[in-house]
């Protein structure tokens, strides 16, 4: 049995919950009164105790990240909400900003208060213009109601929220590339510092969190960290807006608690594999996570630790489900085109390597490759792994290794056919 | 042909500047505004943006060429952007792309002679659960079939 767990998606099925009136009637902004009863650092402590983890794919502790923000400083600080949702197979943030944008705004108020910031930016991917308009309407409503702007909720606290629109670059979902882009530059990821510190926006301390992470905060402030820990596992507490696309009967976003079996999730929410076919493979958490075979899917559990133990990652929780008829060589080629197109071009192994592997697998498809080419591809994957500024190339490396080692037979089949 | 932001844009730009720590941050918002005003971004627009952002024009140009959604050349009135990434591919993106090419008699990357349609193939639009998807200007058209995309195209003609 799957336990119902609607923490973030509570209002998704309520008509017009994107308007302030309806959202308020269903409990929006109820955490705010409690918020101002606490000191900022107490809010961060609550979030840390809840075990909330970043939901944009990395899964790092949100509280740990918040603690890196300096308090009591004269210098301004910022929150950047990551709504650059571009990981193939991931389409959950758009659900929040279109169906319950006030939950995000409420979460922004809680978060900014905790980190003593007076300005939040929401970096939204350029393609989401229609969704951005819905979110902007909600922000305008919140300003009119006195929930944003000067002295919000009658308190001695000011908060502005500005939407910043991207323009079609996957890499801007990487937190430092996102900030570069917000500074008006190319979205090139930055080198990471040698010790833990906050991110920086024009030299000011900045916290970057995913939309869903921020939208999870109001419940924790309102009901306490234990209420959040009542779901999920010890190390992966709470829920995630998991999603399914590809060959299932009912594609979509369905919130579930961490730790449930992947196959139960697919069958319960997705209604099983489309047209009664057999399952072949699942990419578990957005394109950049290592593919799982059908046998592995039967064992897999949807939490960070279990997925890590299987040699893959939970990522964004956006599962791409593939049935028995899926051509794995074509599927890999499709993803390699994606990575080749989206590599920001800053580091040579990634810029060149993503093109080389795309060409080689293209040759496999055309029947113009040899088995040595497969090994060459794995060698290039190795060269890309851990030798670049950001995790784009290592992720691509995992994708290649996963497909070629787990479905090598299919690649060799193409090569054999080409040689005759 | 010179470029100047139109009258409605002037107060918007002024307000925007108050929302960022430095004017350089306005590069993307202003590139968007220029593109909406002119339907593409001309070199003259780049110069005007550079002035507002207090950046060298080349820096703005570098930025404009990095982001795929900025058009530096004029395109058709309707920009058809077919998502081709895996979730869409598994659910029939190619049939949609083929249908458009046949209906409009253009290949990917081309514009119809009447300058009404430009066809592009793009990477993941975040509509994996409602694929296949085509973005037409700012609107998503989801759960498409070859029949429904033809109907949409004929309505736009």
Uncertain spans of chain B, ≥5 residues at pLDDT below 50? none
Order of helices and strands of chain B: HHHHEHHEEEH
Domains of chain A (count):
3
The largest sheet of chain A is:
5 strands, mixed
The greatest inter-chain interface is formed by: A-B, 58 and 44 residues
Query: What fraction, in percent, of the residue positions of chain B are helical?
Result: 40-55%
Describe the protein.
The complex is a heterodimer of chains A (420) and B (157). Chain A is an alpha/beta fold. Chain A is 44% helix and 13% strand. In chain A, the strands form two sheets. In chain A, strands 3-2-1-5-4 form a five-stranded mixed sheet, with helices on both faces. In chain A, a hairpin with a 2-residue loop joins strand 4 (199-201) and strand 5. Chain A is globular, with a radius of gyration of 22 Å. Chain B is an alpha+beta fold and 157 residues long. Chain B has two domains: 9-66, Arc Repressor Mutant, subunit A; 78-156, Glutaredoxin, CATH 3.40.30.10. Chain B has seven helices and four strands. Chain B has helices spanning 9-18, 27-38, 43-53, 57-66, 86-90, 93-104, 146-156, and strands spanning 78-83, 117-122, 134-136, 139-141. A four-stranded mixed sheet of chain B has the order 2-1-3-4, covered by helices on one side. The longest helix of chain B has 12 residues, at 27-38. Chain B is elongated and about 50 Å long. The two termini of chain B are 30 Å apart. The model of chain B has no long low-confidence stretch (mean pLDDT 97).
């Amino acid at each position: 049995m799957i336990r119902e767990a609607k923490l973030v998606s509570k209002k998704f099925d309520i008509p017009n919950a994107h308007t302030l009136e309806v959202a308020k009637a269903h409990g929006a902004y109820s955490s705010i009164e409690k918020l101002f009863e606490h000191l900022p650092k107490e809010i961060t402590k609550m979030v840390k105790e809840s075990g909330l983890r970043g939901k944009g794919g990395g899964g790092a502790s949100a509280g740990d990240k918040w603690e890196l923000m300096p308090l009591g400083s004269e210098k301004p600080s910022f929150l950047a909400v990551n709504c650059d949702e571009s990981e193939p197979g991931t389409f959950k943030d758009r659900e929040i900003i279109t169906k319950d944008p006030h939950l995000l705004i409420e979460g922004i108020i809680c978060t900014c208060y905790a980190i003593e910031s007076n300005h939040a930016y929401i970096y939204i991917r350029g393609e989401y213009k229609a969704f951005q308009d819905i979110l902007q309407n909600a922000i305008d409503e919140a300003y009119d109601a006195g929930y944003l702007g000067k002295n919000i909720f009658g308190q001695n606290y000011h908060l502005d929220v500005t939407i910043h629109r991207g323009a079609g670059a996957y890499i801007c979902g990487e937190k430092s590339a996102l900030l570069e882009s917000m500074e008006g530059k190319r979205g090139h990821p930055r080198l990471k510092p040698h010790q833990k510190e906050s991110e920086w926006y024009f030299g000011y301390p900045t916290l970057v969190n995913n939309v869903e992470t921020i939208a999870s905060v109001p419940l924790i402030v309102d009901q306490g960290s234990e209420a959040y820990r009542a779901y999920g596992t010890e190390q992966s507490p709470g829920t995630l807006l998991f999603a399914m696309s590809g060959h299932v009967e009912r594609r979509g976003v369905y919130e579930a608690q961490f730790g449930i079996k992947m196959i139960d999730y697919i069958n319960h929410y997705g209604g099983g594999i489309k047209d009664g076919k057999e399952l072949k493979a699942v990419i578990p958490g957005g394109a950049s996570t290592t593919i799982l075979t059908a046998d592995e899917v039967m064992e897999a559990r949807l939490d960070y630790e279990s997925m890590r133990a299987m040699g893959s990652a939970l990522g964004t929780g956006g599962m791409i489900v593939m049935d028995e008829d899926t051509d794995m060589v074509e599927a890999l080629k499709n993803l390699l085109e994606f990575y080749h197109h989206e590599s920001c071009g800053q580091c040579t192994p990634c810029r060149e390597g993503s093109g080389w592997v795309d060409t080689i697998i293209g040759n496999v498809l055309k029947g113009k490759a040899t088995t040595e080419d497969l090994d060459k591809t794995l060698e290039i994957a190795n060269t890309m792994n851990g030798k670049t500024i950001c995790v784009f190339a290592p992720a691509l490396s995992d994708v290649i290794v996963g497909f070629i080692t787990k479905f090598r037979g299919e690649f060799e089949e193409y090569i054999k056919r080409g040689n005759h | 042909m010179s470029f100047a932001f139109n009258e409605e844009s002037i107060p918007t730009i002024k307000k925007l500047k108050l929302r960022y720590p430095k004017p350089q941050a306005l590069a993307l918002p202003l590139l968007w505004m220029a593109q909406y005003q002119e339907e593409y971004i001309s070199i003259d627009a780049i110069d005007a943006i550079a002035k507002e952002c207090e950046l060298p024009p080349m820096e703005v140009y570098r930025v404009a060429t990095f982001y795929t959604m900025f058009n530096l050349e004029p395109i058709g009135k309707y920009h058809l952007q077919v998502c081709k990434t895996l979730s869409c591919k598994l659910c029939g993106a190619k049939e949609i792309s083929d249908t458009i090419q046949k209906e409009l008699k253009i290949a990917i990357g081309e514009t119809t002679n009447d300058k009404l349609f430009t066809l592009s193939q793009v990477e993941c639009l975040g509509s994996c659960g409602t694929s296949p998807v085509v973005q037409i200007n700012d609107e998503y058209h989801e759960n498409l079939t070859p029949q429904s995309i033809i109907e949409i195209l004929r309505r736009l003609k």
